[in-house]
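Below is a filled-in request sheet from our internal design queue. Each sheet records the structural input a requester submitted and the sequence that came back. We keep these sheets so that new team members can see what a complete request looks like end to end.

REQUESTER: design group, bay 2
PRIORITY: normal
MODE: inverse folding
CHAIN LENGTH: 366
BACKBONE (tokenized):
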């Protein structure tokens, strides 16, 4: 299959082949999809299990869990990370399910930190198991951390997470700050009638601790979270609420492929952001691939399925064959689900989330 290589400053195939072998290996290709989007970030889900049951993500008690023998080992993940890095990926995010449920996660971090070309390793966690692990993760090479915190009120927290304990999450957050896993980002999904009254409390908390808070619009991920557009609190509403207490302005500079639109408080109280996947989709800048815990490559958060890399990996294939498979998948990519959803919401027919079968969030990691 012919590869699409973008960017005139990067050598194309012909010029690469004239380079000494060690340079051919080191110079990253920029692999692009059908809409010209490069492959830059990889989100690695290390488990589909979670000790919470957030109503917006994983509300049921039981799912069809991935069986243990299908879960990628750290060695397998490390090898795939190397393949992705040679294709241009620079940033890795470890996620889940709850990634800290996986034993000795610091061993994986250490392995990923050694992958040539990887510049940034982040972790997204619910924080509940972080207090004991933050230091080991930092020592292993974790650069940054995003902690999900939707409420500061124990009753609302319990209503949303259904399991777990707010005090343990806050202890995990303190450990991350003390260990220097900074800047810590906070993710807060806002759901109407559930925690929308806490927008300013969350802002006050983030400002007082110097944290980078990002509000996330409630999305129709998976098939069982009962999403309706009425539950969505839009970016516009969130900004209006924040601005009444704390005037702010947009941060200047290119946003790149970052999902959040960022703002600076005018009184010097720091920054915050909003990820407006529903009302202001950013598919045009989506450079993210996702690897499920059982080794499927998924090219969109709303995909119906993934591409099985694990079978290839376990069949004894070479890195070049794995790389060719990833390139072929990314070259064919046309995903722009959130843009299509917004068009459907605004159309006469409206949008019916249940009409589309999607992968569950637990296997994708956000
Ligand atoms: N368990 C970890 C955690 O909660 O941070 C990592 C996995 S979780 C799936 C990753 C992120 O996805 C979390 O910040 C979570 O809030 C977000 N998320 C899950 N379901 C969502 C939904 N329906 N809408 C918006 N964000 C969602
Ligand atoms: Fe678990 Fe994270 Fe999903 Fe909550 S958002 S159920 S903590 S995976
Ligand atoms: Fe990327 Fe899919 Fe989200 Fe669009 S909907 S931003 S293509 S993950």
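RETURNED SEQUENCE:
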């Amino acid at each position: 299959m012919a590869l699409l290589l973008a960017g005139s400053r990067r050598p194309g195939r012909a010029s690469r082949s004239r380079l000494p072998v060690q340079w051919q290996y080191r110079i990253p290709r920029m692999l692009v999809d059908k809409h010209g989007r490069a492959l830059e970030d990889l989100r690695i889900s290390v488990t589909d299990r979670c000790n919470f049951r957030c109503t917006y993500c994983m509300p049921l008690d039981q799912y069809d869990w991935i069986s243990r023998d299908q879960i990628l080992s750290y060695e397998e993940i490390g090898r795939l990370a190397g393949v992705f890095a040679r294709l241009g990926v620079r940033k890795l995010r470890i996620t889940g399910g709850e990634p800290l449920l996986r034993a000795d996660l610091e061993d994986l971090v250490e392995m990923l930190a050694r992958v040539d070309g990887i510049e940034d390793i982040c972790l997204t966690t619910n924080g509940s198991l972080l207090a004991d692990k933050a230091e080991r993760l930092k020592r292993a090479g974790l650069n940054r951390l995003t902690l999900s915190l939707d409420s500061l009120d124990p009753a609302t927290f319990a209503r949303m997470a259904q399991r777990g304990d707010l005090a343990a999450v806050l202890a995990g957050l303190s450990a991350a700050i003390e260990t220097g896993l900074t800047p810590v980002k906070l993710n807060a999904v806002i759901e109407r009638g559930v925690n929308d009254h806490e927008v300013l409390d969350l802002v006050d908390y983030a400002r007082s601790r110097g944290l980078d808070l990002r509000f996330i619009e409630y999305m129709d991920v998976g098939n069982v979270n009962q999403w309706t557009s009425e539950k969505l609190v839009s970016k516009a509403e969130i900004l209006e609420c924040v601005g009444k207490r704390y005037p702010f302005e947009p941060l200047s500079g290119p946003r790149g492929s970052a999902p959040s639109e960022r703002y600076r408080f005018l009184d010097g109280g720091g920054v915050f952001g909003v990820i407006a996947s529903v009302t202001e989709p950013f598919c045009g800048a989506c450079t993210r691939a996702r690897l499920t815990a059982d080794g499927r490559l998924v090219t969109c958060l709303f995909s119906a399925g993934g591409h099985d890399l694990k079978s290839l990996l376990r069949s004894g294939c070479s890195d070049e064959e794995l790389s060719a498979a990833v390139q072929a998948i990314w070259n064919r990519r046309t995903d722009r689900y959130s843009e299509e959803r917004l068009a459907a919401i605004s159309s006469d027919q409206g949008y019916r989330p249940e009409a589309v079968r999607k992968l569950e969030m637990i296997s994708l990691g956000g």
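SHEET NOTES:
- The CA atoms of residues 343 and 351 lie 9 Å apart.
- The chain is about 30% helix and 15% strand.
FILED BY: M.R.
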